[in-house]
Amino acid sequence: MYSYIYIYIYIYICVLFVLLEYIVTFNGYYHNETRYKYISAALKSSGIVNWRILDRKNAASKYPSDFDVLFVDEFYSIKALDVLTDHPVIKKVSPQRVVQRNLNEYVNETENNVLLHKRSLGQDVKFWYKLNKRYKTRHILRIVPSQITKVLKADVLWRLGITGKGVKVAIFDTGLSVSHPHFKRVTERTDWTGDGDLDDGLGHGTFVAGLIASNRECFGFAPDADLHIFRVFTNNQVSYTSWFLDAFNYAIMKKVHVLNLSIGGPDFMDQPFVDKVWELTANGVIMISAIGNDGPLYGTLNNPADQMDVIGVGGISFDDHIAKFSSRGMTTWELPQGYGRLKPDIVSYGTDVHGSSVSGGCRSLSGTSVASPVVAGAVTLLTSGILAQGKVVNPASMKQTLLASSQRLPGINMFEQGHGKLDLLQAYKVLSSYVPQVSFSPSYIDLTECQYMWPYCTQPLYYTGIPIIVNVTVLNGLDVFGKVIGIPIWYPYFHDNGHYLDVTISYSQILWPWSGWMAIALVVSQTTPEDWSGTVSGHIEITIESANTNHTVKLPLRAAIIPPPPRIRRILWDQYHNLRYPPGYFPRDNLNVKNDPLDWNADHIHTNFKGLYQHLRSSGYYVEVLGEPYTCFNAANYGSLLVIDPEEEYFTEEITKIENDIAKYNLSVIIFAEWYNVSVMQK
């Protein structure tokens, strides 16, 4: 067993980390010579001689920077990390990463084959039909709109003179040809890969740019916007963290308004990347990013779309169904102790959308990398309209506008659709009358509302149950910085039995950039009559100080309570012994999966074990999630402890307690482990 583990650990390091290369992040921006002096002084004073700073030749090279890429000889690498980390000017040292983020274009192999053979005009008609398996079944043929802008009624804003003028849009992708006929305002093209090539060799960047600003044939939303093209992927779809960091710094210096990132990856622990995204939005850049194409699995959100300060976009079809490929929530940053946040933020069309082809003309693509520039184009159009009115817009106010104006899709839960479908015209109305404010995502908590509030609505609360945690994002449209005054307070409605609910709130004291969070833990009060059932309600108040004023906002809360179920019907899911994902080097359990050795979408009853959870609930069982050690639960309340694929070690006290629980309370322990060694089992 262990030989396999070590092999996969090595592969994972090779894929995600560039061996012996480190990103050294400083606590400020310095010129090349100054940064070199800091690193040189730290390393040479410790006797480390085999190192060098890698040269980065790009558009940002002549400007001060807050990082360097350092190569250190393997013999000195550990010592070098210790020395650099202790330096007062150096913030942190992180591994250089590669092949971490993917172009979120969904490839439908069947459709591609259809198009390929359809172009071959000499193919026999019967053969072509057989190839596409149309003889097996019949479908209602739906009309795919040729103009996405017409579907979202962008032409209404165009007639008002709102066309994207005055807005700088950064497109981080695979480049764009300067001679492409669809674009009239390509302000700047930059290459960050070192190839020296500015053109698009894949077609992905051209398509994305077209949805935002194409001026002919397949129109984009904001044809008069100023396009800043950042080529951050090679034609082999290779990219490095350092390329993004340089490009992000340059975007900040260029004071772009909107940035589209139709890419993503599972690794929210790429700290330099995450930090730089925060810095971008803190500087007023509205970032829109694709949520990922790892659906229909839950817990598969991509970074940076899963960050609070970023507008994360999922995909839908033109008949308003969630696209199968669109990644689902919840976020997994908070696991195993907490619970994930609501994402995606919003959804838009991402299936069979027409856009610019790399060779001219139009083609159709699917994926959240398509839905993202649809929203980015809409945001660009909205921004130009507001700037023309002499008003300002920031990442939080734009996000609040999109969420408040979106159309809720019926029968679809919040971890699939976020706040709903993009409504461009309604968003313009909301933004035109927008008053700076603090708001929540979700805007309310109703644990009785199905299907939208899945999974909360599928299981009522009861006394002695493990606390239910709802994680709420606090959006601050007042300013980039805010802080909580006092503490959030729960106000129960006594006329609606709110006093039967105990509410504990953890929260971020500081809101930066533009956002913070509240983790709301709900348990049934011990004062609740044993046989009582019904609904309870109240609200949470929180006061935010920002922009020299105090703003108090309310979060409505409603839940259902039932008497405690029989212990034989209560199952405790062990979440505590699952690693936080994505971990540093832990490989995927399935050794047959070669292309993605990281088991990154977490083990949780509401993510990759959603099917098991729904089966248990439909069979009459109640499933609770344990996010603490075994010493923290009362086995007298449960019939079974469910342990699936644990990775963390068990403390001696935990083992002793479980042994006692089995002997004293007849607690059943059900274990599913994917790692095993046959020879050990036979012994």
TrEMBL record:
A Gene Ontology term for the protein's cellular component: endoplasmic reticulum membrane
Cofactor(s), by name: Ca(2+)
Main localization (coarse): endoplasmic reticulum
Compartments it resides in: Endoplasmic reticulum membrane; Golgi apparatus membrane
Active site: D173 (charge relay system), H204 (charge relay system), S369 (charge relay system)
SUPFAM superfamilies to which the protein is assigned, alphabetical: Subtilisin-like (SSF52743)
Ranges of residues in domain Peptidase S8/S53: 164-420
Assigned EC number: 3.4.21.112
Segments traversing the membrane: 7-30
Residue ranges annotated for the MBTPS1 fourth domain, each copy included: 565-683
Catalytic activity: Processes precursors containing basic and hydrophobic/aliphatic residues at P4 and P2, respectively, with a relatively relaxed acceptance of amino acids at P1 and P3
Source organism superkingdom: Eukaryota
Keyword Phosphoprotein annotated: yes
Ranges of residues in domain Membrane-bound transcription factor site-1 protease-like N-terminal: 20-97
Every MBTPS1 third domain range: 441-563
PROSITE patterns xref list: SUBTILASE, SUBTILASE_HIS, SUBTILASE_SER
Principal EC category: hydrolase
UniProt-listed GO biological process terms: cholesterol metabolic process; proteolysis
Entry's family note: Belongs to the peptidase S8 family.
Record's protein name: Membrane-bound transcription factor site-1 protease
Organism: Sipha flava
Gene this protein is translated from: MBTPS1_2
